[in-house]
Amino acid sequence: MLKAIKRLFRASSLFLAIATTIGIAVLSLAKMEGVESSVFNYDKFLHAFAYCTLSFFWLSAINKTGRIILVSIICVIYGIVIEILQMVLTNYRSGDLYDALANTSGVLIGYFLYQTLAKKYFLK
Asked: Can you say whether the dihedral through the CA atoms of 51, 88, 69, 21 is positive or negative?
């Protein structure tokens, strides 16, 4: 059973990485009307979760030891670029330094999650 899960994860990790990348871009640049939260800085948790997922899937898809740091840096740069695009391309979204920091923290969490879980369970 675990071998089947490992094969499925390996086969789908690139698709999941690409889908997450596109999903983050679409959700980050789309006009969100009526989406409000009463929880203070709730969106920062969403940013961290999204970029944790992004980095975990890309690290799993690339799966090369020498490229782990490079992939993580690219994910951080992607988060910064998305924040800049929000400022430049839209008049209904704004780029935020704290969002970029939440994105970066999510990438770091994804990196550590990959280092512990994926190597222990999926990538042996």
From this structure: positive
